[in-house]
Sequence to fold (136 residues):
Amino acid sequence: MSTHTQRMNKVVAYIEDTLDLDITINSLASVACYSEFHFQRLFRSYVGESVYAFRKRLLLERAVKWLQYSDRSITQIAFDSGYDNHASFNKSFKKQFNYSPTQVRAKLLSLTQYQLPKLDEDKNMKAKIVTLDEIK
Fold:
């Protein structure tokens, strides 16, 4: 494993472990042993999103677990997820997951929605190979 990969894995683990703390780019760059500018560029290319977007996504994913498996109020979950108010949490949550926190809390979003549909036995599902003429 390359040095860059090891450093970025260390930063990702650090972010996951310190989700409740306010972390700075400078502190993350120190964990990775890079300059702030170089770190941000490498992090985005490694993870595929900025540090802020990555952390925000992790907080929202944790909020889903809390909504489904805890009795905390939605407002409390919003505050614990780093939002200043309920409305901005709802807006970000809906943008990320296409469901409101209330819908998730009501268990409208179940894992069964993501299962493949069952095939009807009477459908003819035979493959047919067709040779097409060359297209210029």
About this structure: Residues 51-69 form the longest helix (19 residues).
